[in-house]
Each structure stands twice: as structure tokens, then as C-alpha cells.
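Consider the following input, taken from an annotated entry for Chemotaxis protein CheY (Stieleria bergensis).
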Amino acid sequence: MSKSALVVDDSTSMRQMVSFTLGQAGFDITEGSNGQEGLDNSKGKKFDLVVTDLNMPVMDGLTLIRNLRQDPSFKAVPILMLTTESQASRKQEGKTAGATGWIVKPFNPTQLIQVVNKVVR
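Applying the prediction step yields:
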């Protein structure tokens, strides 16, 4: 049985790149172009991984993470923040919200898969 991932980013090209990379690693992908769309697309589905951007219109990544963590089915799902932000204070905000890990853009597809392999069981 393949694993599934929710990929949320307002940049179409970034979303496609992450989706392609994870798809090559055997994940079925569901996408969202902002946090609200990602949240809407998560309803009633089971995911093995969430990858989200931080800065997005409508709903940002931190708010998305907080909302997902309130759903019991997302309590143990690894959530990776993939963003241009690299400040320690932002990373702490992500951790407090419930992010499992933090990857700074631009990302290396091999690095992304290595991180995913560490957090996805």
C-alpha cells in the first residue's frame, strides 16, 4: 500500500516540484494552494505526511498546522515546514504549532527524501 502526502504551497511550481519528488518516492499526492485549501482537502482523508509552506494567502502554514493538530487523525502525522524563512524564532513558532521538521527553500530533492525517510514510518 502506498503512502499519501498532503502538499500545500501557494507557488504552483514549488508545489509541483515537491509533489513530483514525493511521487517519485512512492507517495500519492493531494495538493492545496493555501492553508485553507489544504485543510479542506485533508477532511476525511488519512495522510502519512504533510509538507507545507509558511507564508501563504488565505491561511498561513502555522495556522494550517495548528488546525491539523486539533484533528485526532493528524496527532502523529509528520508535518514538514518547507519555507524560505530560516530564523530561529520562526522555527520555534513552527515547532510550537506542531511542525515535525523545517526545510529551507530552495530545497534539494534528495535532502527532502532523506528527511521524509527519517520522519515517515
